Amino acid sequence: MSPPDPWLELRRLTAARIALGRSGVSLPTQEWLRFAEAHATARDAVHGVFDASTLADALQAVTGLTVARVHSAAPDRAIYLRRPDLGRRLDAASRDGLAALPRVERDLVVVVGDGLSPVAAARHSAALLAALASQLPAQGQRVDAVVVAEQSRVALGDEVGALLGARAVLVLIGERPGLSSPDSLGAYLTWAPRVGRSDADRNCVYNIRPEGLPPADAARRL
């Protein structure tokens, strides 16, 4: 029998793994099973299918912009997970496609990528982009282009932004899943994007999801 847990009231206030209790010197069976379920959910989030076409349609609906689609140099999920460097660069077809677009002045380009949690991008990016698009005009700004990227890392936005002549690029991407947050969306803002930028050149707003930082609040911060 597990002893009574005096932390139960505190546990109700957070999704963090606290107040797990014990059975002898081990975790109670129920908590071990919850851990196994959370771990499986996190793994499923990493390997989830990214429906780029459906997401592009949703983003076009909330912005009114034609959404371009690109792919990183990582041809599939298995290679993407083993070779982070390939996820940071476009494949040849995507690079040529963006380079062929008309060269116009663009203040802000938004790149929406699957990252390590495709489910996060699918669930939260449209709501965040809708809130951002509605708030920017009050400051004399707007979203000038939207790109959906498959098998992407954050730095992929540097190449996309450079090819499109953007003054700034905002990458919305699925974050590495945690045991209580399999669908956390991150937002990385980089000024004057170019290949070779480092993470020190970016500002980040993370844990964007209803249970963390809601999309409307994240848009105001961005």
Main sheet summary? 6 strands, mixed
The helix fraction, in percent, is: 25-40%
Count of discrete alpha- or pi-helical segments spanning 4 or more residues: 8
What's the SSE pattern?
A: HHHEHHEHEHEEEH
Summarize the structure.
The protein is an alpha/beta fold and 222 residues long. The protein is 36% helix and 19% strand.
Overview features:
36% helix; alpha/beta; elongated; 19% strand; single chain; 222 residues; 6-stranded mixed sheet; 8 helices
Provide an overview of this structure:
It is a single chain. With 222 residues, this protein is of the alpha/beta class. It contains 8 helices and 6 strands. α6 (118-135) links the parallel β2 and β3. α6 crosses α8. The longest helix has 18 residues, at 29-46. It starts with 7 loop residues before the first helix and ends with a helix.
Give a topology summary.
Elements: H1 8-11, H2 29-46, H3 52-63, E1 67-71, H4 77-82, H5 92-99, E2 106-113, H6 118-135, E3 145-150, H7 156-163, E4 166-174, E5 185-191, E6 202-208, H8 215-221
Parallel strand pairs: 1-3, 2-3, 2-4
Antiparallel strand pairs: 4-5, 5-6
Helix pairs in contact: 3-6, 6-8
